[in-house]
């Protein structure tokens, strides 16, 4: 079994309230879950209205599949025009860990 985790540090566009932030982050989280069948949560910067930290996790029997899914998630988020991807952090855990 392999577990992959990907963390996105995002800068949101012209957002002036936490309510507006939710209107951008919630659909993004829902789309990642639906499209890639991954676990997703807003994991940081909860009190900042222009920043978001999202965590994505995937479990599979094959490490290559985990990498492929995380790569697709990263491309999807990087291609969103309403936000800027500041950084990503990736971890892969396998049977030896």
UniProtKB/TrEMBL annotation:
Record-linked SUPFAM superfamilies: Hypothetical protein TT1725
Record Pfam families: DUF503
Matching InterPro entries: DUF503, TT1725-like_sf
Gene3D superfamilies to which the protein is assigned, alphabetical: TT1725-like
Protein name as annotated: DUF503 family protein
Organism of derivation: Amycolatopsis pithecellobii
